[in-house]
Structure formats: structure tokens, C-alpha cells
């Protein structure tokens, strides 16, 4: 686990990714620069070359990936020993749900829709984990508060 102070930059990166995704989807943002490519396949397949491309997709991916990584692995402001068990259970559930969704989409979604699912799949484990962990944490905290009031 990393320090709690990384949670806010993590959320900021996720929000930046969302904003860039929206701008990119309405064709409002392009950043064309030369980049080194190990493999490039557009009109012709090239290996180990420099190409000029719009790198906004890579920037969006890195914003999401770094944001989810920072957010998922940051401690809570008030850390509880029981949270480690909640984290473990949340990761397991997120992986199981994500796998089930991936199997179902493999069976029932085809073409570009399936490629979209694969792209979303890169981040869905993080999203499911964050949702499940926060639900479990709220339930735990609510039950702990009730038990302390009863005493």
C-alpha cells in the first residue's frame, strides 16, 4: 500500500482521462508527434522506426492506468486493520466478476464492439475493485459504529 496522499492525484488523473476521452471522441484534440515504434501497422507494416502519430490515445491510457493504480493502492485517511481483509475480498470479487463479464462478451459480442470491450477490460478490474471495496468499507464502518454505540 502507498500513502493516502496519492489518492487525490489518482482521481485527478482519472478525471483527466475522462475529459481527454470526451474531447478525443468528438475529434477536438489531436497531438501529432514523431514517436519511436517497435511495430506499426497502418498503411504498411513497419518495425523499429520513427512514425508521426496522434499520441492522445496513449496519453489517455496512461492517465487512466496511473490514476487507477494510485487510487486502488492508496491507503485510507483513517486506516483500519480489517481493511486488508476487505481489500483482499474486493480484489477476488473484482477478478471473478471481470472474468465472467469477459467470458460472456466473448460469447455474445463481436466485431468492433468486442474490441471496445477489450479496451474497457484493461481498467474494469480496477473500477470493480474500487466500487466493491468502498461498498464493503462503508458496510464495515457502519456496522462498527453501531456496535460501538451499543456498548
Explain this structure to me?
The model has no long low-confidence stretch (mean pLDDT 90). Strand 1 and strand 2 (45-54) form a beta hairpin. The chain folds into two domains: 1-77, no CATH class; 80-151. Helix 1 runs antiparallel to helix 2 (56-72) and helix 3 packs antiparallel against helix 4 (112-150). 67% of the residues lie in helices and 13% in strands. It is elongated, with a radius of gyration of 20 Å. It is of the alpha+beta class. Strands 1-2 form a two-stranded antiparallel sheet.
- Count of discrete structural domains: 2
| Radius of gyration from the alpha-carbon trace, in angstroms | 20 Å
- Beta-strand content bin: 5-15%
Helical element count?
4
Overall morphology: elongated
The number of distinct β-strands equals 2
Poorly predicted parts? none
Neighbour order of strands in the largest sheet: 1-2
What is the assembly state of the chains in this entry? single chain
Helix content: 55-70%
Keywords:
151 residues, 2 domains, alpha+beta, 4 helices
Concise summary:
This protein has 151 residues and is α+β, with helices and mostly antiparallel strands. 67% of the residues lie in helices and 13% in strands.
Helices and strands, with pairings:
Blueprint: H1 7-25, E1 32-41, E2 45-54, H2 56-72, H3 83-108, H4 112-150
Antiparallel strand pairs: 1-2
Helix pairs in contact: 1-2, 2-4, 3-4
